[in-house]
Each structure stands twice: as structure tokens, then as C-alpha cells.
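Lab notebook, page 48
Experiment: co-folding of the full assembly
Goal: obtain a model of how the components sit together before planning crosslinking
Operator: M.T.
Materials (sequences as entered):
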Amino acid sequence: MTHPQVDLAELELSELEAALEARAVERFHARQLYRWIYRHGVTDIDRMSDLGRTLRETLKSEFVIGMPCTVGDERSIDGTRKLLLELADGKRIEAVFIPDTPATAPRYTFCISTQVGCAMSCGFCLTGKMGLVRNLTAGEIAGQVRVLAAATGLLDYPFNIVLMGMGEPLHNYDQTMKALRMLHSEHGLAVSPRRVTLSTVGIVPGLERLAREPLMPNLAISLHATTDEQRTALVPPNRKYPLAAILEVCRRFPLKKRSRITFEYVLLDGVNDTPEDARRLVKLLADVKAKVNLIPLNPAPGIPFERPSDERVDRFAQILADRHITVSVRKSRGRDIRAACGQLIVEGGTKKSAAQQMALLMR
Ligand code: SF4
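Observation: model returned without errors.
Model output:
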């Protein structure tokens, strides 16, 4: 009787060892396979030259090695690259490479997706307009990193990963954490959790689980508003997990020494960018180990908000800085290829005034 081939790219190292053992293959070959798949970016078993021919034949009859297929590759003038990736079932996701070249060493960041679409429906996000199509598997999540590392020549170079692409990572908790364990393996890419940032709207039970993870990534909370009424309008899951509940978990979150939770705040012109908003934000974060990342909106067709002026952004940032909150304003990357935050997939629609926007959202 024939049985379906197992996808090695979906297995953690311990699962791979068990799968080999079940087929009477020595467990240590799992480490060799991990090296080929993750460190060398090889998916063709015939190219794994340190495995004997008989073993390669056995492996080929039992296993496949899945990899998202690159069907689009857009390059921004600032070096950002947006890859359109097709999965085995034909669904498509986007993964973004963001280079940064400060005066010291260059830094590289991969922004990856955890779901096809997203169920969270944030009012300023194009992905949210798609709704949730399906969760990604651990192999598909880790696979984006394999594709990006190979495409950018960074298989041997340290890079950061941000789980800020399509989807809400805590809404696909198990597969996301499994992918991080696969990427962490010292026999593969050995990505340290310190180089990974998980961004969430604040799914409280997920945050509580995350607080107990042995391999804990950095945490970023997408806050975006300072009152429950305003936040529920912008980030609908706030209805179930309001500001007080999220901040309470954040206060108890077991942070490493000197690390802080990043609070992301998309600035929408005339909506959440007033001095009163800034002062309320200061109060909310008073006893949280926090830093704030301000993200002036990247306007897009179909998103009913505008980007605030630089003066409004500066005034907001200054109020936080004056109260000793570490604040940064995110540079917008890859705007010419729609690779910036909240711009992945789906376009269409018309812009509206700020008053119309809130009226629409508050309905
Ligand atoms: S901002 Fe993030 S959580 Fe909100 S809809 Fe977009 S992808 Fe989902």
C-alpha cells in the first residue's frame, strides 16, 4: 500500500528524527537534512551530497520538501523587496525584505505572514479587508524565511524577523510557535528569539500563553488608540480584549532585563493624532516597560484615512518624549511597491474625510 509523502519542511527537528526512525533511518541524518534545507536552501534530495545514494533514494520515496514558490518580486528604490509567494494550494501571501544601512553594520529584516488574509479587520489595513482565508502551516511560515534568506543571499548572515505581515500571529498560535522553533534550531538557521518580534493586536489568552514560552520573541502590541471606543472602531478585537485587559497582561509580562514592549501606533490624520491622544497614551503606559513606535499611515486606495502632516507627527512624538517615553517614528519603507505596513494585498475604494472615517467606523 502506498502512503502519502511527508513534507520535511513541516517537521521540527525532533519530529524529523522520529519520522526517520520510523523508517529505519538513523536519527542523526535529521541534522544533516536540517542543514541542507535551512542553511543551504536545498530542496532537491539528490543535491544532498553527504547522504549516500541508497539513503537518498529512500528519502525521495518517503518525503518531499515543500517551499513557497516565488511568483512576484518587486523592488523598491529604497532596497525593500516584496515577494509574492504561492503556496501548494495556489493561495498567495507576501513576504518583505527590508534592508537598513545605518552608519554601523547593515541590518536586515524579513517581514513575514502567519495567515492568508486576516480576521481582525483593522480599519486602516488592506489585509484586514480580505478577511481570513486560512491559517498558514508552520512550514509555510518558516518557508518564507527560507525563501527570503536564499533570495537575498543571507543564509549565512544574521537577520531579524518581524511577524508583521499578513495575519494575526496569536490567532494562529501553535503553527507560529512551531515555525519559530524550527527557525531557532542550531542545525538550521539558528535564529535567536531576540531577533524575532511578534506583533499582535492583543489577543489576551494568546499573550498569556506567550508569557510562558521558553523561546519568547520580542513583543509588539498594535495599540493605535487611547480609548476603548476609538480602539474598538479601529481595531475591532478590542471589543473582546479592551485596553485595560491588554495593559494588565503587559504589566505582568516576563520581560528580559532591559527589554521593553513596543507599542505600535498608526497615526491617522485628525483621528488619533491629537495632543490629547498623546497625553492619554502617556497615562496608559505609565507603569508599563514600554517604548512607542509611531507609524504615520501609508495611505492606500480603499483605506479611508489620511497620513498626518510631519508637524502633527512631531508634536505627538514630542509629547511622549517630554514624559520620558522612548519614541521612534517608523520610516516608511517600500511605499512605491506597497510593501509598507498594512499595505499587503487588495486594493480599491475611495478616500474619505476624517469625520466620515470615524462616523463609518463607529457605526
Ligand atoms: S493590521 Fe494586522 S491584525 Fe489588523 S487586520 Fe491588518 S494584518 Fe490583521
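Interpretation: The CA atoms of residues 224 and 330 lie 14 Å apart.
Next step: discuss with group before ordering constructs.
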